[in-house]
Each structure stands twice: as C-alpha cells, then as structure tokens.
Request: fold
Amino acid sequence: MVNDVLGGLGLLGSSPEMLVLFIGFGVVVGVLFGFFGMGGSFLVTPALLMLDYPAPVAVGSGMAFVFGTAVIATLKHHDLGQVDYKLGVIMITGTTIGIEAGRASVYYLESLGLAGGIISVAYVVLLGGVGAMVTRDAMNDDGDSGVNHEASDEDLSEYEIPEIAKTIQQTVRIPPMVTLRGDVRVSVWVITTVAFTTGLLSGFLGVGGGFIRMPAMIYAIGVPVPVAVGTDLFEIVFSGGLGSYLYGQGGGVNLSIVVPLLFGSALGARIGSAATAVVDADGIKIYFGGMLLAGAIAVGIGGIGSYLGSPALELVGLVMVIGAAVVVALAILYTSVVSLRTTRDGSATVAD
Amino acid sequence: MPGLEVPSWDPETAMLIGVILLEAVVLYVGYGGLERLLGPRVMKLLVGGEEHGQ
Reply:
C-alpha cells in the first residue's frame, strides 16, 4: 500500500528510485553498523515489510543482506585476530537448528496470513526492549562499557569475566567441556543453548542476532569482548549464509534489494568504523537507544496502519524508521567532523 | 506446519548466495583500495588540510 502511495507521488514508481533509496538506506545502516558494531541491519526487515514486500521476502532479503555485511566485517576482524574459530564452529550446529525452526515458523505463519503482523509485533518488543536497555545504559554510563572494534592488541586474559558468567561456568559443568580463547572453560551445552536461541531469532526475524548473541557470549559464556565481536561476525557468516540459502530456495531472497543495500552499507561501514577513532561512542549511545525506541514505535504505527488498511499510517511508520536511522547516522558524521576540526585547532594552538 | 528441512542442493540458489558473497569480497577489496587512495584527500577536504595543523 505504501508502494502505491509513493508510486502515486512518483517517488518510488520506477526501479532507479528504489535503487537510490536502497543504496542510501544501505549507507545509513552501514554507518550505524560500522560505528556501533550492531543494529541498523534490524531496521531493514521492518522497512521492507512496510514497503509491502511479502514477509518471506522481507526476512529472506534482510538475512541475505546481513550475510553480506558479516562477510565484509569478518574479513576485517580476522585481520585483527579477534575470531575464536573453535567457539564459532561449536555454535554453528545450535544456530543452524534454531534458524531452520525460525524459518519454518515464518512460512507456517505466512500460510495462515499472520506472518507480517506477528513479525511486526516481535520487532516492536525487540527494538523497544533493546532500545530501552541501551538508553538506560547510556544514561547510567560510567564510560567503560562500549565495544571497541579496534581493541585487538590487548592481552585477552586481562579481560575480567562477568560474575554471572563465572557462576554459569562453575554451575553448568555438563561434559564435554571446552577451553576457549582467553582461558575460558565452559560446557558445550551452554554454547549450544546460546546458539539455538539466537539462531531462532535470526531465522524468525531475518536479523544477524548479534545484539543478543554478543551480550550472551560475554555474560553467559564469559568470552572477552573483542573475541565476542569477531566470533559473532564469523558465526553470522554461516548462519546468515545458511538462512539466506533456505529462504532463497523458497524465492525469499531478492537481489534487486540486497545488492544495492550491500553496496551502500559497505561504504557506510567504513565511514562508521573510521568515526569510532575520533568520536566517543558512549556520547552517541543515547541517540542509538532513542533510534531503536523510535523504530519500535514506527513499526507499531506501520502495523496498525496495515491492520486498519491505512496507507497514511504505514507511510508515517516507514518515514519514522528511516528518519530515525538517518538522524543518528548524521549525528555520528557531524560529531566526527566537529571532533576532527577541534583536534586540528587544538594542535594549531599548541604549535603556535 | 512445514517441518524442519535438511537443505537440499539447489544450484540456482547457490549461485544467488555466491553473487552476494562475491559482491561482499569485491566491495571489501574495492572500498579498501579507494580508502587508501582517496582517504587522505577526503580528510583534507573535511578537516581543512594538514598545513593548518602545523
């Protein structure tokens, strides 16, 4: 319906406009991903749903996009030595079963005509929950909770294991046990449970699952933060690849969506990643949390619009999803340039 | 409800995923090269040039 409205306005009536829209949205998503190491990608599926793509196409193309993004990011993190391949390989089994269960659920709900609605509700809960958590963290931040993508050279044994992870490691000692990087010893069953749960989310929502898996690896398994980031991305290459393949078999992967999105996001990710070197992520985290909350509200409004058959409400939802992401991406770029200029002026003053 | 499936070999879908994989690798290498080539000029443009900082 939104397509009809936009088409009627002549905004998205032909493919060049859609191409520009997808490349532009890809750049925005890439900046967010490159800067925060997560997020962004889970705005793609709701946006596609609001553009009236069928649920399997929205989820399948979203997942294929996540797969491509993860390939690029893993290549980078491999170079930084942040990937625990043993942990990644163990997680693949649980994730694979989880993804397939999630995917089967989407097709079942689609056959009942309920997929779009239920996936939208799941997104509202997920974006709202994660958004509230990030915003609360940002407001109570002590400045040391950010994820530094470039922090590769620190000794992994220096990272302190969270108390909850220590408790799990000491309580759940069902064999076989494995030793991971950073001298972490944990039951394979803990790893498999984390993998299955996040795989289920990936398969159902078309997301990489990193925003759940990364904290789960840190707090449930006790993996050092840089290794959690790198291994998560390595895992997404496989889970995203498999999920895309399964959706692709059902006609759920649309290359005219994925190719331009990836083209834009790969560029955006480089910009976002470069920005982490000059901007304090904690200062912008609150905007990120706000963006997720706005996304949750937008998906809710879009869903209500779809239920009531109101194209205007669906359009408002779409504009809010994309608008919130654009605002945060612009805030990152603006803060980066200001920060660079301030540094330059400071250097000039010292030199004088 | 459709049951859990074991993925079967489908050359057309494999090609589809291969295209995305290839695009990702090409973009990683291509944008990396562009960054090295144009990065300093873009920084100069944005920040105002190194000569101002000295």
Notes: Residues 2-145+158-351 of chain A form one domain. Confidence is low (pLDDT under 50) at residues 5-13, 143-153 of chain A.
